[in-house]
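Hi R.,

Here's the chain you asked about this morning:
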Amino acid sequence: MAKYIDGFVLVIPKGKEAEYQKMAEMGRDSWMKHGALQYFECRGDDLKQQEMGDMKSRAFAEMAGAGPEDNVWFSFIVFESKEHRDEVNAKVMKEMDEEYANATEPFEMPNDMTKMAYGGFAVAVEG
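And here is the predicted structure, written out as tokens:
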């Protein structure tokens, strides 16, 4: 079955993990309520450079622009298709806009958005 993935790489400063996780749990609830198939927020645990024969990979933290004061998170949401993703995301964004419009306190992201990467991915191989 073909699926579509929205993927994110985020840099979360150490000390802001609980704040980010709370926000992520709210995001999970919203995306799942509006039809996402699966939702994952993954905190980096083993991000060092890997040697593969005579080649070396880039370290995930380096690729993300993270320093020693940061944690790297890899997050992804699974949808039925790109069209399904667009429908679900429109509902989620509408809900978030309404929540922020009715908020009594300003919302501040727990991460530096200039260090966030996002992309939509068509699944090519599944197992």
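One quick note: The chain is about 35% helix and 30% strand.

Cheers,
M.
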